[in-house]
Amino acid sequence: MPGLKQQAEELIDRLIAAYNAHDAEAFANCFADDAVVYEHPNFPTQVNKPEFLEYYAKLFKEFPHNRTERLYRAVIDNRVIDHERVMRTPESKPFEVLTIYEVRDGFIQRVDFVRNSDAAWKA
Predict the structure, then answer these.
(1) Residue 88, SS3 per DSSP
(2) pLDDT digits (tens, 9 = 90+) for 37-84
(3) Which of 8, 102, 109, 114 is 20–30 Å from 42 (CA)?
(4) How far is it, in rounded angstroms, from Cα 16 to Cα 14?
(5) 3-class DSSP state of 11
């Protein structure tokens, strides 16, 4: 049976694959029902799985070329910290984000985003 670190890392790999495939349902299914996404340091932006599904379905429709690539990863117990580069459109300037995922019981429970201050990241 995989350890806690491996389970967390595999879940985040599935999340990123769903994100890059624009599969909002598979993406949302990586989250616990009561998960919360925060803009660092503590500003909640989505607070449950239906909100994730709605937000990312809209984002994927609005930006059909949207993709992310991992630049660096660190894993500490049940936390996966990824430094990512996001591209909304082929013409747009990419932006970077530091994403801290907290995994519990096989689902993402909390996400903290630290973003470029000048990034146009919202859908």
Answers:
(1) coil
(2) 887 666 556 667 788 788 889 989 999 999 999 999 999 999 999 999
(3) 8
(4) 6
(5) helix
Q: Give me the mean pLDDT over the 79-94 stretch.
A: 92
State the Cα–Cα distance between residues 49 and 56, nearest whole angstrom: 11
How many residues are given for the chain? 123
Q: Which domains does the chain have, with CATH numbers?
A: 4-115 (3.10.450.50)
Q: How confident is the model at residue 11 (pLDDT cuts 50, 70, 90)?
A: very high
Comparing C-alpha atoms, which of 113, 112, 117, 111 is closest to residue 31?
A: 111
Which stretch of DSSP H or E encloses residue 13?
helix 4-20
Overall pTM > 0.90: no
The secondary structure element, H or E, covering residue 57 is helix 49-62
